[in-house]
Amino acid sequence: MSIRDLPGDATRDDEPWRLPATADGPPSAPSTAHAAGPSEDPAPAAASGARGGAPATTPVGRLAATVERLRAEVQAAHAAADGRALIELAKGMLVERLSCGPTEAARQLAALADQAGVTPLELAADIVNQVVRDRLTEAAVDFATAVGADARATAPEAASAAVRLRTAESSALAAEDPQAVADSLLEHALRPLGASGVAVWVAGADGSLTLAGSAGFPTGEAERWRYVPPGVATVARCALTEREPEWIESLAARGLPSIGRTHHPEGGRVAVPAGVGGRIHGVLEICWPTPLPAQPPAVVRQIDALAELCAHTLEIHSDAASGSSGNSPTRSGLAELVDLADGLYDPALVLVPQVDADGHLADFRIHHVNHRFRDPAGRPRSAVNGALLLEAYPMAVDQSDLFQHVERVYATGEPFRGSRMTLTALVDQVPLSSVAEVSIMRHGDSVLLIWRIEDEAARLANLLQHAQRLGRIGGFEENFVTAEITWNSQLFALYGRDEAAGPVPVEQLRDHTHPDDAVVIGRFLRTVLHHRKPASAAFRLRRRDGVTRHIRVVAEPVVDIDDTLLAVRGAYQDVSAQHWTEVALAATRDQLAQTEQESAERNRLALQLQQAIMPVTAAPPDVPGLRTAVRYRPAETENLVGGDWYDAVVLPSKQVLLSVGDVAGHGIEAATSMVVLRNALRGLAVTGAGPAQLLSWLNNVAHHLTNSVTATAICALYDPSSRVLRWARAGHLPPVLVREGQAATLPMLKGLLLGAVPDVSYEEAEVRLDIADTLLMYTDGLVERRDRSMEESLHHLVMTAATSRTSLEQRLDHLLTYSRSDTDDDTCIISIEVM
C-alpha cells in the first residue's frame, strides 16, 4: 500500500512513494533504543546496584540505582523528543502532499505504519528520504544496499540507518547551539557506528579553530581544547588545510595532537571539512576508542552526509550569532570591505562567491574595483568591475594558481601572501602578463584580493634617473672598438649641449676645460687611457653659452685579458654649488671671527628685551573657571625682538585684563616703545575704567609721551563672575570666538590706531561667554600675507581655529603651525577658555 491509495489522495504522479520493503514479513522494530518512536514506551535500564558495586539494599546503592534510572529516563526522553521531531517533519510533508490537516496527516501516518508493519519512526524516515533525496538519503540507500549484500545482516539494520540519520538531522536542525548538535550526532548517528566521541570545530577568519561543541569526551577536555591558534598542526587542522577528509587508523601512529588523545591514544580518528557552497565553516572530528580499519563506502558516505549536515547547522548558528536578520550582516560586511579597499594605495578587488545550481562554488564575481586599480592589461575599471574572476583573468587557473589560492582562502579563512606571482589577462586573445606581489584575505563571505605590480628593471632605472638628477650627475660610456659614445640626458644638460650635436669624446676634454686646468685634465687622461687605471679630477668646464661650471669627473677603463683598452665609462658631477659654498665660507670665516663678540653682546641685549615683552609671571593668571594660554613667535630677522606684545593680569577688581598690541617697526626702538605702552596700560587699568576709556588714555600716552609712536591694540576686561567680556580695539584685527565647534570673528568696532592724533574716542562692546567657549586675540603676524587680502587671511584663520583640539595649548600650537603668513613680522597670541 502507498500514500496514493489513501482517501483524499493529493499526491503527484511524477513523485511516487515507496514503503520499506520486507522479504519475509513486516520488518521488526529497530533494536536500538534511539530508534524508538514517541508511541513506544522504552523501559529504562534497571539498576540493581551502584556503579561502584554497592548493593542495591544499602542507602548508597539505592541512591545510585535512582540516579541510573533517572539518567535512563532522561536519555529515553531525549530520544523520544528527537523521534517526535522527525515524525512531525514527515507529518508536514503529508499535509503538503495530501492537502489535509495535521490531525488527518497523523492518522494517515499511523495507518500506513500499521499496514506496512513498521514503526511510525521508520515510516517517517522513509517518507523524508523519498521526498528530499539528498546526501542523507544516498547514504541510507548505500547502507541498505551494503546490508542486503551481507548475508549476516538483517533488514532492520538497513531501516535503522535511515532512522538514525534522519533523527540526527531533525535533532540537529532543532538544536539551540552546536553543543546540542554534537550530542545529537553522537547519540543517533555515530555511536551505532562504534564512535565514542565527536567534536565540532568552527573555522575562524584567521585560520584558527574554536571548539563549538563536543560529546563523549572526559570532563575538562573541552575546556583544554577550547581554542587552537592558526598554524598549530592538529587532526582538524589537517582536514581544514587540505580541504579533504582525514582518515587516521591510529592517532598514536600518526603523532598528531587532538582532543581526547590521552584517553584513547590508540584510537582512530576521522576529520571531515564541513562546508557549504565552497566555504568551509568548520570541521567534524569523530573519535573511535580502538584503531579504525578501512571503512566500507557506505560508512564513508554517512560520515560525509553528517559533515554536510553539520556545515548547514554551523552556517545557521553563525548567521544567528551575527545579531542581525536577513542578509544585513552580509551586506554590512561587504560594505566594510569596499570601504577598506578604497582606502588602500594598491589595486584591490572585492570578490563575492558564485555557486552553481548544485550549490558548489563555481567562480567569484568582481563586486568592486578600488580607485587605485591598474589592470595588468591596461583595461579600464569598468571593463573589469562586475565580471567573473575567470572571465576577466582566465589564465588565473593555469598560471601561478591564483584562482586556487582565492578559493582556498575563501574555504579556510587563512590569509595568503605571495611574491612574484604572474597576473595574465587576455586582450584580443593576446596574453599580457605582469609580475606582482599578491595578498588575499577573507572578510565574512567576501574575499579581498590585493596586488602590487613589480617591474624591477623599470623601478631601478627610474630610481637611478632620479638619483642622477638630484645629484646633478651625468653618466657616459665610450667604446673604443666601435667608436660608439653614450651619454645620458643629464650629462648633455651639464655640458649645455644639444643632444642633436652629439657627445664629446673623452680625448677632447681639454677643448672644453679652462686653460688653468689643462695640466689636471692631462694627468687624468694619461692615467685612464695610457696606464689603464681608474682616476678622478676636478676642473672648470667652459660651456658654449659662456657659463663655467665646476665639475668632478670619475672614470675607469675596461680592458680585455691582453690589457687592450676596450672602453671607458664614468660620470661627471656638477659640484659648483659646493665649490661656491666653500669659497663663501672661506671669505666670511674671518668676518665671523671679528664679529663674534659683537653678536654675543647683541644677543644678550635682545634676550633681555624679549624677557621684558613677556608677562612678569611665567605662568598664566590663576582665575577660577578660566584657562589662559599665550604664544610668542619672533620675526625671522637678525633682530630677535619687535613691537608686538600680549598681556594677561588679574586686576584688584577681580577682573582679568587681556591685551595684545603691535608697535610699528622692529628692533630696539620698537621694543622699547612696546614696553612703555604695555606697562602704561597695566597702570591705567587699575583705575577701574572700561576698555574704551583705557584705549583713549593709552592713545594720549603714545602721542605725547613717546617719539610719535603708532600702534594697534585690543583691550578687553573679563568678569569671571558673570562671564561677560567687554572689549575695544584701536586699529587692530578683531578677536575670534570659537563656540560649539564653530569659529567667527567678533564685530569690527570703530577705533583709530594709537598715537595718530590726540583725544580719540573708542567704541566698546561686550559679549557673554558660555562654558567651553574659546576667545583668541592675536597680532597681524599670524595672518598677514603679501599676495592675499586681509579678508581671505581672516577666513583661513577662522577655519583653522574651528579645528577641534583636545586642549587650549594644542589649539595655539596648531594655529602657529598652519599659519599662512609670509611677512617678516612678530606673532603674539593670547587665548582664554571658559570652564
UniProtKB/TrEMBL annotation:
PROSITE patterns from the UniProt entry: ANTAR, PAC
Annotated stretches, region: Disordered: 1-58
Composition-biased stretches (Basic and acidic residues): 1-17
Biased composition (Low complexity): 35-56
ANTAR domain boundaries: 67-128
Keyword list, A-Z: Hydrolase, Transcription, Transcription regulation
Gene3D superfamilies for this protein: 3.30.450.40, PAS domain, PPM-type phosphatase domain, Winged helix-like DNA-binding domain superfamily/Winged helix DNA-binding domain
InterPro entries in UniProt: ANTAR, Bact_Sigma-Reg, GAF, GAF-like_dom_sf, PAS, PAS-assoc_C, PAS-like_dom_sf, PAS_fold_3
Database matches in Pfam families: ANTAR (PF03861), GAF_2 (PF13185), PAS_3 (PF08447), SpoIIE (PF07228)
Single GO molecular function: RNA binding
Boundaries of every PAC domain copy: 535-587
Name of this protein: Transcription antitermination regulator
Domain of life from the UniProt record: Bacteria
